[in-house]
């Protein structure tokens, strides 16, 4: 499990951990268990930046928080969102969509997707009261949902990175991680389950679209689920805090 934690840290973040870990089935399976923990770590570090700068200027704090999140993830999931937008909005057949998604070049729809997502996330970060709680749990929510989808949904591209995670068969560990995570949410506030449920629904909707478009999911789609899931969870927290 320790090797799985290190592998998850190396794969989902750009935090320098110079410990060699074999990219084998056992370690991959264990790493998926720690996906929501990686979200909490990234969200926690972003929250520290926000708490330090927000007393001085809220706009700058929100901007630097965004930059911190991008640096910590290396833009990995944003790149996946860009490729997914380029492919899914091209209105081509399955094979052509997969070819477009594999292309390293960024198209018009990809740029539009990135701009809208980052601008919307900036607005949310700037306006959500009690941001650290929302940020930590939202980044955890999106990665928890991604871990479930990786484990239970069909892969569209044989031999891809997504298939490696899927074939590691982390289903039992995912069930355990979900149970632990729900207990943590209840411990803090029962209402925090609402953003998780909305994030799960978002992941299911994106998965349904992916099934229609390409017959399954890819690593790019997982990244899209994480990025859009973060925004939807933050938006739900914003509404929850206003309501309560």
Automatic annotation (TrEMBL):
**Bilayer topology:** Multi-pass membrane protein
**Which chemical reaction does it catalyze?**
alpha-ribazole 5'-phosphate + adenosylcob(III)inamide-GDP = adenosylcob(III)alamin 5'-phosphate + GMP + H(+); alpha-ribazole + adenosylcob(III)inamide-GDP = adenosylcob(III)alamin + GMP + H(+)
Where in or outside the cell it occurs: the entry states: Cell membrane
Q: What Enzyme Commission number(s) apply to this enzyme?
A: 2.7.8.26
- The answer to whether the entry has keyword Metal-binding is no
Molecular function terms in GO for this entry? adenosylcobinamide-GDP ribazoletransferase activity; cobalamin 5'-phosphate synthase activity
Q: Where are the transmembrane segments?
A: 32-54, 60-85, 106-125, 173-201, 221-243
Main location, first listed in the record: membrane
An example GO BP is: cobalamin biosynthetic process
Question: Which GO cellular component term is one of those annotated?
Answer: plasma membrane
Q: Return the Pfam families for the record.
A: CobS
Pathway(s) it belongs to = Cofactor biosynthesis; adenosylcobalamin biosynthesis; adenosylcobalamin from cob(II)yrinate a,c-diamide: step 7/7
Domain of life of the native organism: Bacteria
Cofactors needed by this protein, per the record, are:
Mg(2+)
What does this gene product do?
A: Joins adenosylcobinamide-GDP and alpha-ribazole to generate adenosylcobalamin (Ado-cobalamin). Also synthesizes adenosylcobalamin 5'-phosphate from adenosylcobinamide-GDP and alpha-ribazole 5'-phosphate.
Similarity remark: Belongs to the CobS family.
- Entry's NCBIfam families? cobS
Q: What is this protein called?
A: Adenosylcobinamide-GDP ribazoletransferase
What phylogenetic lineage does the species belong to? Answer: Bacteria, Bacillati, Bacillota, Tissierellia, Tissierellales
């Amino acid at each position: 499990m320790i090797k799985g934690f290190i592998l998850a840290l190396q794969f989902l973040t750009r935090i320098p951990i110079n410990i060699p870990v074999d990219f084998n089935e056992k370690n991959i399976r264990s790493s998926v268990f720690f996906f929501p923990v990686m979200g909490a770590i990234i969200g926690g570090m972003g929250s520290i930046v926000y708490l330090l700068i927000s007393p001085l200027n809220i706009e700058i704090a929100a901007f630097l928080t965004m930059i911190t999140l991008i640096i910590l993830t290396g833009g990995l999931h944003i790149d996946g969102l860009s490729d997914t937008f380029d492919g899914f909005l091209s209105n081509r057949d399955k094979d052509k969509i997969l070819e477009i998604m594999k292309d390293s070049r960024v198209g018009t729809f990809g740029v539009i997707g990135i701009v809208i997502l980052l601008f919307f996330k900036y607005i949310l970060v700037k306006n959500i009261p009690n941001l650290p709680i929302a940020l930590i749990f939202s980044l955890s929510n999106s990665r928890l949902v991604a871990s479930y989808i990786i484990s239970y949904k069909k892969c569209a591209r044989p031999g891809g990175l997504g298939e490696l995670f899927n074939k590691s068969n982390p289903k039992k560990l995912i069930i355990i991680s979900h149970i632990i995570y729900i207990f943590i949410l209840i411990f803090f506030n029962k209402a925090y389950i609402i953003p998780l449920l909305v994030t799960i629904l978002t992941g299911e909707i994106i998965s349904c679209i992916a099934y229609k478009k390409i017959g399954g999911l890819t690593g790019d789609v997982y990244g899209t689920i994480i990025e859009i899931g973060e925004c939807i969870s933050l938006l739900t927290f914003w509404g929850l805090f206003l309501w309560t």
